[in-house]
Write a structure and sequence with these properties.
Layout lengths: L12 H58 L14 H42 L14 H28 L6 H13 L6 H12 L6
Length: 211
């Protein structure tokens, strides 16, 4: 009888248990990160709304001054725009919110990479094309990666939109455009409604939610 090589004697179940635990932890991390993102989005909207209101108020005051000086003052006598410290502070606050959202999106990418690594490990242990028993209920391991990737791409696109909004919202003179920026920040067009369903399904599959 041939002696078993060390590789033949390596127990596989502990590796699967570690992988399952990591995927379950990742699901909880997804939940926490998405909740933090929503809180930051609400805070950012409040700040952006202040910026838009101040910009509109400034435009109204500037228009009144222009009318008052139109016929009575030369170009050099017209008042120069005043520095608005509150507006500047709000812009800094919105930028800080964006920085926190950027960190969250990077963590989401890391979760996706970790899930991909687990899938690769499972393929290595069992071979490509071989069906393995689900870690939890019904999801095959690659589906956790598919869901993570889909969520990560949504938040990546949304972050890019928010970067544009932060760069432009305080410099726009077009009220309609400012309202579009404000609405886009609040309603997050790149984060699809399916994101919440995907998260809940993942939490249910991993046992964080009960039927």
């Amino acid at each position: 009888m041939a002696a078993k090589s060390p590789a033949d004697g390596t127990p596989r179940r502990p590796v699967l248990s570690v992988s399952a635990r990591k995927i379950k932890d990742n699901a909880a991390d997804w939940h926490n990160l998405m909740m933090k993102w929503e809180r930051l989005n609400d805070n950012g909207f409040t700040t952006a709304n202040k910026i838009v209101n101040m910009k509109i108020s400034e435009q109204f005051q500037d228009n009144k001054l222009e009318i008052a000086y139109d016929n009575s003052a030369t170009e050099s006598e017209k008042p120069t725009p005043k520095y608005n410290e509150e507006l500047d502070n709000c812009c800094a606050e919105l930028l800080e919110t964006l920085k926190h959202m950027t960190k969250i999106q990077l963590k989401m990418e890391k979760l996706t990479s970790t899930t991909k690594a687990i899938c690769d490990l499972e393929t290595f242990h069992h071979g490509a094309g071989n069906c393995t028993a689900p870690f939890f209920h019904t999801w095959p391991t690659p589906y956790f990666y598919e869901v993570s990737l889909k969520l990560s791409e949504m938040y990546q696109k949304e972050l890019q939109l928010k970067q544009t909004i932060v760069q432009e919202i305080a410099h726009s003179a077009d009220q309609d455009l400012m309202m579009v920026y404000l609405s886009s920040w609040l309603y997050q067009p790149y984060i699809e409604n399916s994101s919440k369903l995907l998260l809940e399904a993942m939490l249910l599959e991993t046992g964080h939610r009960q039927c």
